[in-house]
Each structure stands twice: as C-alpha cells, then as structure tokens.
Design a protein that fits this description.
The protein has 163 residues and is mainly beta. The protein has 1 helix and 10 strands. It has a single domain, classed as Sandwich (Immunoglobulin-like). The longest helix has 21 residues, at 2-22. It is flat, with a radius of gyration of 24 Å. It starts with a helix and ends with a strand.
Amino acid sequence: MVQKAIRIALLLSILAWPAMAWAAPKLEVSVVAEQEVAVDESGAMRIERVPARDVKPGDEVIYTIVYANAGDEAASNVVIEDPIPANGIYIADSNIAPGAETSFSIDGGSNFAAPGSLTYEVRTADGVQERMAEPSKYTHVRWVLDEIGAGESGQTSFRVRVK
C-alpha cells in the first residue's frame, strides 16, 4: 500500500513538472503620451487627457507607463526604465508611481539615484566642484517594483515640458 502511494505521488509529480517548468511571469509594458486640455461642456469647464500629437515648446506632456503581468507566476524585482525625451525637461515632483521605488539618471541611463543623491562635477577656476543635479538634467526615470503578481497591472507616470 505504501509503495502504491509512493508510485502515485511520483507519477503526479512527474505529470505536474511540465506545468511548473512553464510557469513564468510575462510582463507587458506600453507608454502613452498625452496632454491635458480644457473642454467646455454646456458652460462647465473640465480637464480631459488627449493624445499628445502637435506639441509646441512650453507644452506639458504626460507619459504614462502601463504594465501588466500576463503570466501565471509573480514577477519579482521588476525594473521599468523610460528615457525622458530629448526635446523635453522633466517637471520636478511629477512622478506618480504607487508602490514603486523611483530613481533618476543624468548620464543617459548608466547610473540611477534618488533625486537628492544625483550629483555631477563642474570644473571651475577653483578646481572641481560637485553640484546637485536639477530635474532639467534628468535623462531617464527608473521604477523598481518588489512584485507584480500574476494577472496584476498598474501604471506610473511623469510629466515633461517640451523645449
């Protein structure tokens, strides 16, 4: 009887192995660029988001990164990076990223740090000085999420002023 139970357990584990081996997270990420416009409906003004198409210098563009785990297993330590467009300047404190740790790069995405830790060096007549990077120097945004469960989704966003 014990041997029969062992054989059944072994058979079940062998049959279940392919399913376990194929279980994996499957991350899908998309980026949407939008602008906010005022819409007058029967004398009542409201703000609406529309696709950013004909942007001009000074316009504000909202970049929303939508992510989803379409897999059948949780994704851990997920890193999502997005470059700040070359024709844009990151707007300070515009990042919205529930549950994510956010950092920025000022060197094209090679190194990332929290805003208060981003510095760069400037050579002056007195030698080399270290300066705190301002949001206008940011080149990339990075979000790190501890986990995105199977079937879960979310989004992050930031704003840019067009140069």
